[in-house]
Automatic annotation (TrEMBL):
Pathway: Glycan biosynthesis; glycogen biosynthesis. The lineage of its organism: Bacteria, Pseudomonadati, Pseudomonadota, Gammaproteobacteria, Chromatiales. This is Glucose-1-phosphate adenylyltransferase. Homotetramer. Belongs to the bacterial/plant glucose-1-phosphate adenylyltransferase family. The gene is glgC. The record marks 71, 110 as: Could play a key role in the communication between the regulatory and the substrate sites. Residues 19-283 form the Nucleotidyl transferase domain.
């Protein structure tokens, strides 16, 4: 490969690439977690937000021209990006640009779909004059060097390249499923099929899109203008643009593989409450598949300056009981006061008061748990104030009466469900 012969090949390509992160969706399958924030702004992993993963991948890949396209309830996302991603130097042509949805003169509509979001920003794309455009979803959790994918795009002579992973057949129904020939050219693409086509030789696995696309800029403009003129289009990359491009142009698949092990790395779509809970819980293990401690590929974010977590002795029935966390992750500003936290992930500024037990749970920032509470198998949303003696996750019928319970039995609790002010939720 030319890439192996010329190590500067990838750096030149990434320098000529503009990344566009689609961050306008609500993500309704996350239930009440996205009542007051867009899905890419949902907290993840103790200190991050989902948007931090594609942004960090871009920076670590050498892509420093980035647009974030926003729409639904974007205030917390905009605030986070402004606070945490303003370190790039404009005089060097580097930026993270926030692009809100803009009503057009011809039709006063918001983004009609993923393809329409990019189409409405074509004038901004042309102003930056990139050679290649990298389109990314803003709500997936993974670490990926985009350089090799862009290099494959150029070397293969593709008009469009689609990042893909192999996924169990029963889960593939939630994604765009593709079939490819022996050279990696995409032959067919079906968005969220009822019966996904398995990969040859493996009836239990399908090849699905990661929602990552590389385009030649001129081709992107052409295909989006044609899509905009098609009255039957739903303005979606998966449903409309990719199937059309397969017939009219060269579309190539790029398998997401570790170049050293040839194994498929970690990639998660945390699009449901169960998936969100499981992905956070996976981080607690001693050797999680997603290594957020990797200094060679850091995940950048904004984080408030907070004091260290504190474990204090609380009074229970007149006795002094130490606070403790076992097999758990805790964050800055947390106070565990005479309580027990087991196999749980606590975001910043969480307070758990005396004689309470939190087990197998994900507690988002600024939550306070009162005395004598019993919480397990739960996701507690940001800013909730759990009253003394509250029991969550122990009595399913009671949980369903007051909270959202996922198909797997995970209890999602928000401030609104507790009858509390939701204005503080970020």
């Amino acid at each position: 490969m030319f890439l192996e012969r010329n190590p500067r090949f990838v750096s030149r390509l990434t320098r000529d690439t503009l990344a566009m992160i689609l961050a306008g969706g609500r993500g309704g399958r996350l239930a009440n977690l996205t009542d007051w924030r867009t899905k890419p702004a949902v907290p993840f992993g103790g200190k991050f937000r989902l948007i931090d993963f594609p942004l960090s991948n871009c920076i670590n890949s050498g892509i420093r021209r980035i647009q974030v396209l926003t729409q639904y309830k974007a205030h917390s996302l905009i605030q986070h990006v402004q606070r945490g991603w303003g370190f790039l130097r404009g005089e060097f042509g580097e930026f993270v640009e926030l692009v809100p949805a803009q009503q057009r003169l011809d039709r006063p509509l918001w983004y009609a779909g993923t393809a329409d979001a990019v189409y409405q920003s074509l004038d901004i794309v042309k102003a930056h004059n990139p050679e290649y455009v990298l389109v990314l979803a803003g709500d997936h959790v993974y670490k990926m060097d985009y350089g090799p994918m862009i290099a494959r795009h150029v070397e293969s002579g593709a008009d469009m390249t689609v990042g893909c992973v192999e996924t169990p057949l029963e889960k593939a129904r939630a994604f765009g499923v593709m079939s490819v020939d022996e050279h990696g050219q995409v032959l067919a693409f079906t968005e969220k099929p009822e019966s996904p086509e398995p990969v040859p030789g493996d009836d239990a696995t399908a090849l699905v899109s990661m929602g990552i696309y590389v385009f030649n800029r001129d081709f992107l403009e052409q295909v989006l203008r044609e899509d905009a003129e098609n009255p039957a289009s739903t303005r979606d990359f998966g449903r409309d643009v990719i199937p059309t491009a397969i017939h009219d142009a060269r579309v190539v698949a790029h398998p997401f593989r570790d170049p050293q092990t040839d194994q498929q790395p970690y990639w998660r779509d945390v699009g449901t409450v169960d998936a969100f809970y499981e992905a956070n819980q996976e981080l607690i293990g001693s050797s999680p598949e997603l290594d957020i401690y990797d200094e060679n590929w850091p995940i950048w974010t904004y984080q408030a300056q907070l004091p260290p977590a504190k474990f204090t002795t609380g009074t229970v029935a007149g006795e002094q009981v130490p606070g403790m966390a076992v097999d758990s992750m805790v964050s800055g500003g947390d106070i565990i006061n005479g309580a027990v936290v087991r196999h749980s992930l606590l975001f910043s500024q969480v307070v758990v008061e005396a004689n309470s037990v939190v087990e197998d749970s994900v507690i988002l920032p600024a939550v306070s748990v009162g005395r004598n509470c019993r919480i397990r198998n739960a996701v507690i949303d940001e800013g909730c104030r759990i009253p003394d003696d509250t029991v969550i996750g122990h009595y399913p019928e009671q949980d369903r009466r007051y909270y959202h319970v996922s198909p797997r039995g995970i209890v999602l609790v928000t401030a609104e469900m507790l009858g509390q002010d939701v204005n503080h939720v970020r």
